[in-house]
Amino acid sequence: MQHEHTTRVDGREGEGLADGVYRALLRSIISGEPAPGARLKERELSERFEVSRIPVRQALQRLESEGFVVTEPHRGAVVKPVTAADIAELFDARLCIEPFATRQAALRVHAGLESADALAEILARSERHLAAGETANGIESNVQFHAEMVRLSGNGLLVRSLEPMLGRMEWIFRLTHQARGESEHVLEHRQLVDAIVGGKAELAAAQAYAHIELGRGPILEALGPFLAA
């Protein structure tokens, strides 16, 4: 894994630096560089981030616990190859959280307990990214949209349950951004906003469920070249 530039991370030696390396490396993995299967050598990462190997090792351990990195015999840490089982787990977990959360969001917004203004702004930002052809920014807004929908449920446990999935969602969406047209995502998000703002709880839940399931097949198909056995 070759890098032309170093990236200084903020924080003190130990946990603070490890957090900085973790965030920077996670962002790199989500962005697709290094790709699934690529080795993550401690020495090279230490030089890249201008830190000792201790925070690098801590960051790699954290990424491994979150499913982004795996340790292989004779190779060390590598970016975890994506499997069909990974996709199934992610989509199944989202189905357990998002439809119910979206239903609650519609009820709370309709009752005046929450405002959908931030959700509508994220949608508007997605539409601007789509019009400008800004795929990476559009994907980031896509993930933010789902996070905000769950936040509107008012259920902190659901929010915390979704948080570990957000990075994986963005990672998968970036690998498969051509699986479904971005215009389809934006249209379905618009329908979700309308249902939430209109207080149509059951419709919102059904749309959230359908939105997730409609993405499953195309994403699995698009991931074909990346999927590990």
TrEMBL record:
Report the CDD domains cross-referenced here. WHTH_GntR
Tell me yes or no: is Transcription regulation among this UniProt entry's keywords: yes
The record's listing under Pfam families reads: FCD, GntR
One molecular function GO term is: DNA-binding transcription factor activity
Asked if the record carries the keyword Transcription, the reply is: yes
Looking up PROSITE patterns in the UniProt record yields: HTH_GNTR
Instruction: Indicate the segments forming the HTH gntR-type domain, all copies.
Output: 15-82
InterPro entries tied to this protein: GntR_C (IPR011711), TF_FadR/GntR_C (IPR008920), Tscrpt_reg_HTH_GntR (IPR000524), WH-like_DNA-bd_sf (IPR036388), WH_DNA-bd_sf (IPR036390)
SUPFAM superfamilies associated with the record: GntR ligand-binding domain-like (SSF48008), Winged helix' DNA-binding domain (SSF46785)
- Provide this UniProt record's keywords sorted from A to Z: DNA-binding, Transcription, Transcription regulation
Could you identify this protein by its name? GntR family transcriptional regulator
Q: Which organism is it from?
A: Microterricola gilva
